[in-house]
Amino acid sequence: MTVQAILQGKxxxxxxxxxxxxxxxxxxxxxxxxxxxxxxREQGKVVGVFSERDIVRGLARYxxxxxxxxxxxxxxxxxxxxxxxxxxxxxxxxxxxxxxxHLPVIDNGQLIxxxxxxxxxxxRIEEAEREAQDLREYIKxx
Length: 142
What we know:
The chain is of the alpha+beta class. Helix content is 46%, strand content 20%. The protein is built from five helices and five strands. The chain has helices spanning 3-10, 23-33, 52-62, 88-98, 117-141, and strands at 16-17, 37-42, 45-51, 102-107, 110-116. A three-stranded mixed beta sheet has the order 1-2-3. Helix 4 (88-98) crosses helix 5. The protein is elongated. The model has no long low-confidence stretch (mean pLDDT 93).
């Protein structure tokens, strides 16, 4: 299974914010959309990822004042990406090794979606269930 197949199933919608948006405003976006991260984009280019973890780190470092800071102060600047042709397994390994939960999907230099560790785990579970069902059917037929 590839990242492209996941995007086809979940859609390619990506929620983005600007580097100057405040942490408080972006926290509301995360809550309203029921998502764990947004991409930070400037002039169409991905310049960062901002997640729930960044909010927690900001609160620990700056207290309540972190909510008034721009997301560019707290976002992850070193954006790790994946390609639509990559396997779910390979992307899961990268996410685990780098301790990230969201990856933008880039194809030929263009943003085409975002995947979360939850998306990948869901796919792996569904794949295991399909394999188990295939085995049950094979055993019944034999």
